[in-house]
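Why run this: before we spend reagent on co-expression, it is cheaper to look at a predicted model of the complex and decide which construct boundaries make sense. The entries below are exactly what would go into the expression plan.
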Amino acid sequence: MSFYFRLQFRLLNRHIQDFGLSPLWGWLLGATGFFLFSWLLFSKTSFALYLYLLLAASWLLQLSNRKRADFLKVIFPAYTLRSIRMTENLIVVAPFVLFLLYRQYFLAALLLLPASLVLSFFHYSAVIRSAIPTPFGKKPFEFVTGFRQSLLFFLAAYLLAGIGIFVDNFHLCLFACGVNFLLILSFYTRPEPLFYLWSFAFTPAGFLKEKIKTALLHTTFLTFIPLAALLIAYPGKWWLIAGIQLLGYLYIIQVILVKYTAYPGEIPVIQTLIFLGSIFFPPLLLGLIPFFYSRSVNRLATYLT
Amino acid sequence: MISIDSLSKSFGSHQVLNNISICFQKGRVYGIVGENGAGKTTLFNCIAGIEDHQGRITADRAPLKNHLGFLQTEPYFFSKITGEEYLRLLCHARHKPAERAAQKNIFELPLKQYAATYSTGMKKKLALMAILMQENDYFILDEPFNGVDIQSNLLITAIIHKLRELGKTILISSHIFSTLHETCDEIHLLQNGVFSKAVARADFDLLEREMKQVSIGNKIEQMELK
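The model came back. Tokens follow.
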């Protein structure tokens, strides 16, 4: 069993190294990032506890994937397998439990531990044969796959926007819009296999234009309902709502360009930090978008003609 | 026609392809054979432009990559993409309509299902269908018969014959000699980074016997199976 966990640790370190960081820095930044994220979540929203528990559950569910469980079942005896699954679930919830204790949510923290152990007994099949219908089927693939993978999160964000309007909390509505855009940004964070890019008979500029056009069109479709609801509920703040929407579009353009500057590799840490910098200081976008555009055109020229 | 001139490729100090020059003509089917690791897939990746390389690869329709259908050994599918969406994506990538996918579904694949849930053979057939719908002039089929049922095997063989009739240039790699025997006009043996032998259809039997001799030899005795 200890070999299994040492191996998992080594695999995680390799992922960190692929990201362009030394493992030590990766763990430090990861821990700091997790703490900051948790702290921000609990300081900014009253629904933090529910979102936090949902997040912990989604991490646990990733380990309960049937394919993974079947693989472990084949290679380990039943008793070892049980110990492994329980231990890894405890490791995953440990940071959540620690933060909940720090915030004095003792009951939630104490419930999370046995819940994680119970969840280790279940596994779910990620293979659902009937496809979830999407309105994006005509232009695959990012929105088709991303929407299906994040459907529940979109529904939660829509619900949050609805609750915000209902309780007249404008900031909660904006937070929900932000969540929508973050989910869409996540569609573009991983590079697709080279074959998919190679297949395109486009110039690099044409390819990027097509990607951006599709992304903006589909984003408008995905964000239209909360956007319209907000404009109806808060007509006096239309400029702020429109501004957030516009910024969202710009960040989506930027993430597409950033992705292809490093293609076929993962987005390196420097570009990630620059991207984060532009979230805190949006005027940077005016310079960054043309910069990343020229970099990604150069990068794509290797694969597209 | 695809023309390869002085193609070399190495990974670090390991030379995989060594100064290969060859010309693949229109309306002909070429079998590329060699042991695992002989460089077949690397050769295909170089032709497709996926791998950097030394030497020149040209085609009568340029750029080659925009007219090339590449069936990879293990086609990759996104986890939440349906068969139909995959076909649409690949057709869109080449500015080709994908509207009659259901009609062209000769392998009777469940196109509304997620492609990732398909069996190995079904994945292969979906990927093949996509490159056929792209109406390419050149085809690289890396192990097209791998994991495919016997009925589809026959259908793929017939498709290759039809593509030849249509004047396409086709390169096939396969570890099943009989399939090459049925489909190819020439077989080229890739060994140590070079084409060590080119055999015309009339001499396929001879090549098979030679390969058996070299590949099997006394290796079974060497295993000391009990």
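The mean pLDDT of chain B is 90. Chain B has one domain: 2-76+136-223. Bring this page to Monday's planning discussion.
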